[in-house]
Amino acid sequence: MKTKQSVALVTGGGRRLGRQIALALAKNGYDVAINYHVSRKEAELTVRSIHAIGRDSIAIKADISKKSQVHRLVEETLSRFGRIDLLINNSAIFIKSPWNKTTEHIWDTTIDINLKGTFLCSQIVAPQMLKQKRGRIINIASLGGIQPWSFHLPYSISKAGVIMLTRIMAKSLAPHILVNAIAPGTIILSGEENRSVKHIRTEKILLQRYGKPSDIIDTVLFLARTADYITGQVIAVDGGSSIQ
Asked: Domain coordinates of the chain in residue numbers?
């Protein structure tokens, strides 16, 4: 099936922030391919929700740290929709791991998914966008890529890598592909939070509150639909935490 509708591919799109982004894109006219690795039920639920909105969607299982599986992910998306206009590199893992607790396995797994996966998805999607002579890539980075989060060492380093990757991709893929990153601060998803995770106190946030999914979604939609003269930028959506 091929469509002239705008098409988005969202990695990790079956749950949490990825799901919220996928649904928002569908509500704004996108057909959406949902990538997942282990969250099959959540991805299928997201697909059904998108169908209920009136847009087309498909759930595709792929480990984005494996090049062969990313190739299949992109091929299945193109087979279904015929094009990819927007890539949201959202998939990531977040493991508490300070310096003396960081094992080789935690390091490799975090870097492979958060950084290598973002690179592979972008590298394999970009030729299709260049063929179309248009496309946008939005990388979900993190405030942890700007600040040194010592208790999440591999995560912080992986997101710093995503930020540099964003800038290099913007230079390499201009002028036809716009590449930007969003660096969320503490975003609270109602009903989905792990109570064992301790967040920064709101007193340390300039705006005195945690972020909501809509704060990220509004930025995604701005970069995806409106911003025609912005590339290679990292937008911190953190209530001012990054300048504290």
From this structure: 7-243
d(CA 226, CA 20): 19
What pLDDT band is residue 3 in, cutting at 50, 70 and 90? low
Per-residue pLDDT reduced to its tens digit, 46-67: 999 999 999 999 999 999 999 9
**Dihedral, CA of residue 170, residue 15, residue 70 and residue 185, to nearest 10:** 30
In 116-219, DSSP assigns E strands to 135-140, 177-184
How far apart CA 24 and CA 27 sit, in angstroms, is 5
Q: Give catalytic status of residue 155 as yes or no.
A: yes
Sign of the CA dihedral 179, 183, 187, 191?
Answer: positive
State the average pLDDT for the chain. Answer: 94
N-term to C-term CA, the chain: 50
- Strands of 234-237's sheet in order across: 57-61, 31-36, 7-10, 86-89, 135-140, 177-184, 234-237
Residue 1 has pLDDT above 50, yes or no: no
Report which of 181, 186, 207 is spatially closest to residue 198, judged by C-alpha positions.
186
Residues 6+ apart with CB under 8 A from 172: none
Please, what's the largest Cα pairwise distance for the chain?
52
What is d(CA 90, CA 138) in angstroms, rounded to the nearest whole number?
8
Which CATH topology does 7-243 take? Rossmann fold (3.40.50)
Q: Please give the angle made by the CA atoms of 83, 74 and 42, to the nearest 5 degrees.
A: 105
Question: Of the candidates 123, 124, 121, 118, which has an alpha carbon nearest to the alpha carbon of residue 139?
Answer: 118
**Residue in 30, 36, 155, 210 annotated catalytic:** 155
Mapped onto helix, strand or coil, the DSSP state of residue 155 is: helix
